[in-house]
Design brief:
4 domains, binds adenosine monophosphate, about 30% helix, alpha+beta, 5-stranded parallel β-sheet, about 425 residues, Dna Ligase, domain 1, 9-stranded antiparallel β-sheet, D-amino Acid Aminotransferase, Chain A, domain 1, binds glycine, Rossmann fold
Length: about 425
């Protein structure tokens, strides 16, 4: 089979790495890809959000199966465009991707089906939103309804902050159309984890859980980012908690989507808050997490390609995937200044030595080749990923590799998986 992966980040490198290992894959393309992906796939300069460009590429290269990595093209209907062109695709339709693309859609679905999540209201009118915030008090969470590149959520500690966020979105046009409606919801206490499951629209195949680290700096300080590191498995998401989340949240969602005539086919990424009453939904994403995908692919023992195809074809019911009991952990190296301003083009050295550390794979997120040199080409640049029998050992391996990378312009967090690794005294 000739396979095309859409995207060019660390998630897509991990997907390409896993897909390239499948005996079913005879030729792998990635668009746009990056310098690391180029080691396992032929990269083509077509933007991840360029729907006609990606369909053209797939037709030209006689692609049999497309795997869409990022959320924006899914929410914009890229899977529908491939389907209309008669090309098999992994990733939900535009209607199903509303689970990520519209927070109020998901909140309404939860309310209708009794799926545990934060209590909320939706507003387009600023005065009504302000009155609601004053009535509820703080802490309270204000969210742009649409996709806002991960920046549309304000966890307000004071009523003033919440009012300002609502004004920014509803009157200040801060997130454009994505912020023309807001969801204002109850602040949930607890520990956040991510759970992943495949669906063919009817059946659900649970994958595993992971925990991301959203803040830029150690100790969960600094601005929110796309994710600075992840690990799997997560102690708090034990087998019993996982099954509760599947039974109370994920399966009812898949059933509701099917009944609504908009079946969800793809990977459902449930952001959960594990609190005193059990798991509650924070949000859904309609694709793999980045960097969570990197640790998932490192733990997966089975061929991923038939499982992804079964999401498109149906037939997930009889599917099983094998996972290693080992832990996997990834550390993100980002350009100094990320997530705000940062420079591109600095050189990264030492990658070969780092990749030789036992159990380590280095996935590229934002890199560009310049002859034999590797240059930084984004905010999140490298994902140094390791497997080992325990989270602690995976962490040691990953940081041993990180320390072999010579890139003064980069930085990373030093405390990935701190919740799972108790400091030794
Ligand atoms: P989201 O984009 O919806 O995942 O929100 C981004 C982050 O904001 C989440 O990962 C949580 O850390 C936090 N968050 C969102 N909603 C809530 C909530 N209702 N209570 C507490 N924290 C929240
Ligand atoms: N790691 C967070 C995300 O992929 O949205």
């Amino acid at each position: 089979m000739r396979i095309l992966v859409v995207g060019g980040g660390g998630r897509e490198h991990a997907l390409c790495w896993a897909i390239a290992a499948s005996p079913l894959c005879t030729k792998l393309f990635c668009a746009p890809g990056n310098a690391g992906i180029a080691q396992v796939a032929e990269c083509v300069e077509v933007g991840a959000e360029d729907i006609p460009g990606q369909v053209d590429l797939a037709q030209r290269e006689k692609i049999d199966f497309v795997v869409i990595g990022p959320d924006a093209p899914l929410v914009a209907g890229m899977a529908d465009a491939f389907a209309a062109a008669g090309i098999k695709v992994f990733g939900p339709s535009k209607d199903a991707a509303r689970l990520e693309g519209s927070k109020s859609f998901t909140k309404a679905l939860c309310r209708q089906h009794g799926i545990p999540t934060a209590d909320y209201e939706r507003f387009t009118d600023l005065a009504a939103a302000e009155a609601y915030i004053r009535r509820q008090g703080a802490p309270i969470v204000v969210k742009a309804d649409g996709l806002a590149a991960g920046k549309g959520v304000i966890v307000a500690e004071t009523v003033e902050q919440a009012l300002e966020a609502a004004r920014d979105m509803l009157a200040g046009n801060r997130f454009g159309a994505a912020g023309a409606a807001v969801v204002i919801e109850e602040f949930m206490e607890g520990e956040e984890v991510s759970l992943f499951a495949l669906s063919d629209g009817e059946h659900v195949l649970p994958l595993v859980g992971a925990q991301d680290h959203k803040r830029a700096f150690d100790g969960d300080k600094g601005p929110n980012t796309g994710g600075m590191g992840a690990y799997s498995p997560v102690p708090i998401l034990d087998a019993a908690m996982f099954e509760r989340a599947m039974a109370e949240i994920v399966r009812p969602t898949v059933k509701a989507m099917k009944e609504a005539g908009t079946p969800f086919r793809g990977v459902l990424y449930a952001g959960l808050m594990i609190g005193p009453s059990g798991p509650r939904l924070v949000e859904y994403n309609c694709r793999f997490g980045d960097p969570e995908c990197q640790v998932l692919m490192m733990r997966l023992r089975s061929d991923i390609v038939p499982a992804l195809m079964a999401c498109a074809d149906g037939g997930l019911k009889h599917f099983d995937l094998r996972w290693t009991n080992d832990a996997a952990l990834t550390v993100i190296l980002a350009t100094k200044g990320y997530p705000d301003g940062y420079a591109k083009g600095s050189e990264i050295r030492g990658l070969d030595a780092a990749a030789k550390v036992e159990g380590v794979e280095i996935f590229h997120a934002g890199t560009k080749a310049d002859g034999s040199r590797i240059l930084a080409n984004g905010g999140r640049v490298l994902n140094v990923t390791a497997v080992a029998p325990t989270v602690r050992e995976a962490r040691e391996r990953a940081y041993r590799a990180v320390d072999l990378i010579d890139w003064p312009e980069g930085f990373c967090r030093r405390d990935i998986a701190w919740r799972a690794v108790v400091p030794q005294s």
